[in-house]
């Protein structure tokens, strides 16, 4: 199977189960399509990005999965590029949101200029548990590679579970090396105040002006 490199070209930087078991990806795709069909609210992360972004911003959905967040933002008038390591998820994103640029890419070695997207971004999103599926030792590099695609004064929103592989302490330690400054922190995507005992962390970081 090949799609922007395909299965055989995927570097060993992801523990996403769908890379070894495509039925996992099919189940994931169908689950969220079913939830959307039932009218469930699946776009809290995207609404936060929309609140941070200026109109018609260029936005990066890093670890986009089947594209629900990037698709929402594109419908709101933003120019979106979505990337994911799983070709099957990217195909689903292209099917559901054909007007968005969806690319197969490994976040650890992300180089969008090589994939035809050289322009920097006004903001980026690492939603849900994307960082949990990056191999140990490579998560700081994800932040560095995503931040390298941001223009000055651009933002990065990162979600992570506080008790999983990538903790709040890990994130804070990695931000300076990526050239990012922590700006705000919340315990939910709907901006509940941050608490040290929260099970989830939503952090807004920014690439400062030179």
Explain what this protein looks like in three dimensions.
A 7-stranded mixed β-sheet has the order 3-2-1-4-5-7-6, covered by helices on one side. The model is unreliable at 1-8 (pLDDT under 50). α2 packs across α3. It has helices at residues 22-37, 44-52, 68-75, 87-96, 139-147, 168-174; strands at residues 58-62, 79-84, 101-104, 121-126, 150-161, 181-186, 200-206. Helix content is 28%, strand content 22%. It has 6 helices and 7 strands; from the N terminus they run ααβαβαββαβαββ. It has a single domain, classed as 3-Layer(aba) Sandwich (Rossmann fold), CATH 3.40.50.150. It is an alpha/beta fold.
What best-fitting shape do the alpha-carbon axes yield?
A: globular
CATH-derived topology: Rossmann fold
Q: What is the count of structural domains?
A: 1
Can you write the helix and strand succession as a string?
HHEHEHEEHEHEE
By secondary-structure content and strand pairing, the structural class works out as alpha/beta
Topology readout:
Layout: H1 22-37, H2 44-52, E1 58-62, H3 68-75, E2 79-84, H4 87-96, E3 101-104, E4 121-126, H5 139-147, E5 150-161, H6 168-174, E6 181-186, E7 200-206
Parallel strand pairs: 1-2, 1-4, 2-3, 4-5
Antiparallel strand pairs: 5-7, 6-7
Helix pairs in contact: 2-3
Summarize the structure.
With 210 residues, the protein is α/β, with parallel strands linked by helices. The protein has helices spanning 22-37, 44-52, 68-75, 87-96, 139-147, 168-174, and strands at residues 58-62, 79-84, 101-104, 121-126, 150-161, 181-186, 200-206.
What key attributes describe this structure?
210 residues; alpha/beta; Rossmann fold
